[in-house]
Each structure stands twice: as structure tokens, then as C-alpha cells.
Design brief:
Layout: H1 3-7, H2 19-30, H3 32-40, H4 47-57, E1 65-69, H5 75-84, E2 89-94, E3 104-108, H6 114-124, E4 129-134, H7 144-165, E5 166-177, H8 182-192, E6 193-199, E7 210-218
Parallel strand pairs: 1-2, 1-4, 2-3, 4-5
Antiparallel strand pairs: 5-7, 6-7
Helix pairs in contact: 4-5, 7-8
Length: 219
């Protein structure tokens, strides 16, 4: 056998295309909400979820103090900041960086970390909050029970935040997924708020299990 031939490395196999990722990208590019978001200068299609809910329920009003949890890349903050102007204040928090927005006081950090939460609460300077928005979701592991537990934990932390900072008569809009702990969370919300509604905006993809709980009139 020719020693030169024996020593030559075998060509590396070509990486297989991820059909699932390719299909998602095709769907994303052709998504009408993605196209509208780009045309309107919005940071993501998620802006239309909040816009639709607000158009129906009239949550955002000029002069309000609003908290946006899980704000990056900033599409909900964009919508909310515009609708609480003039005179409104918006405080946003996310683990990921977020480019500055006019009228938005942003802090980067993990809502689950006590030190981060304390720093965020300090920025409120004792202001009573009119509305808490939470579009937070954990990094999904693909293990349904574990992922659902993380989603519910974030929702519970959000509810605790509302108990401390949301003024009487205030409202909460929080993203959740139906599953373990969902009915228990609904029960807790009805103890703190007078009314509770479920919202599934058209901009939320059909295959997504996400829904939004809208709790109003904090007791």
C-alpha cells in the first residue's frame, strides 16, 4: 500500500442540514407580523401581542407607571412607552441586553437574583406601579415538566412583585403555559385581583402553548 495514500486524512462529512431550523427560518421570514414589525420599526413581532391585548382591554394610559419584566429586545417596551406618554414612566428588566429606548429605564439582570431584584426595586423610588407586564420565559430544556415548573416559578415571582409594588386597582399581564401549576396560579391571582381573563392574541403562533393571564383591579 502506498504510504502517502495511507496517511492522507479522510474528507470530513458535510454537516447535515437541520430541516426543522430551516423550516422555522422560512416561516419566520414569511411571517406577516415579522414583516409588519420591520416596516413599523418595532424590535420584534411580539409587539403586536401587547398592542392587540391593549386595544381590547385598554391597559395603557398616559401618565401611568409601568414595569416590563422580560423586556428584551424591547418590543413591549416600545409599545408601552408610546402609550403611556406623555408623563408616563416605564421600568424594564431582562437578563439579556437591550438597546436604549426613549422613556424607558432599563436594568440588565436576572429577575430571580435577589440582588438584581433589589436594584430594580430601588429604581422605582417608592412609586406605586399601575401595571406590571411580564413576557418572561425561561430557557427551555425540552423536558416538559421541568420547563413548566420554571415558567410557573417566574409567574409566582412576578405575583410576589405585584403584591409589593402594584397599587390598589392596578393590573398584571403575565405569560404562562397551561399545565402543572396553572390552576393553582389562577387561584392565587383571584385572591389578589378582582377580575381574571385569559388572552391569546392573534400574533401568538397557533402552535405555541403560551397564553396571557390578565388580572385587574388589585384588591
Amino acid at each position: 500500500m502506498n504510504l502517502k495514500e495511507k496517511s492522507e486524512p479522510k474528507p470530513k462529512p458535510k454537516p447535515k442540514r437541520n430541516k426543522k431550523n430551516k423550516a422555522w427560518m422560512t416561516e419566520h421570514v414569511n411571517d406577516s407580523y415579522v414583516q409588519r414589525a420591520r416596516a413599523d420599526g418595532l424590535r420584534s413581532r411580539a409587539a403586536f401581542k401587547l398592542s392587540e391585548i391593549d386595544d381590547k382591554d385598554h391597559l395603557l394610559k398616559p401618565g401611568m407607571t409601568v414595569v416590563d419584566l422580560g423586556s428584551a429586545p424591547g418590543s413591549w417596551s416600545q409599545v408601552a412607552a408610546r402609550r403611556v406618554a406623555p408623563g408616563g414612566r416605564l421600568f424594564a428588566l431582562d437578563m439579556l441586553p437591550m438597546d436604549a429606548l426613549h422613556g424607558v429605564d432599563f436594568l440588565q439582570g436576572d429577575f430571580q437574583e435577589p440582588s438584581v431584584l433589589a436594584a430594580f426595586e430601588a429604581r422605582l423610588e417608592g412609586r406605586p406601579v399601575d401595571l406590571v407586564l411580564s413576557d418572561m420565559a425561561p430557557n427551555m430544556s425540552g423536558i416538559p415538566l421541568a420547563d413548566q415548573a420554571r415558567v410557573m416559578y417566574l409567574a409566582e415571582l412576578t405575583l410576589e412583585f405585584c403584591e409589593r409594588h402594584l397599587k390598589p386597582g392596578g393590573a398584571l399581564l403575565v405569560k404562562v403555559f397551561q399545565g402543572s401549576g396553572f390552576m393553582e396560579l389562577r387561584s392565587e391571582l383571584t385572591k389578589i385581583f378582582t377580575t381574571l381573563h385569559v388572552r391569546k392574541p392573534a400574533a401568538s403562533r397557533d402552535r405555541s402553548a403560551e397564553i396571557y393571564l390578565l388580572a385587574r383591579q388589585k384588591r
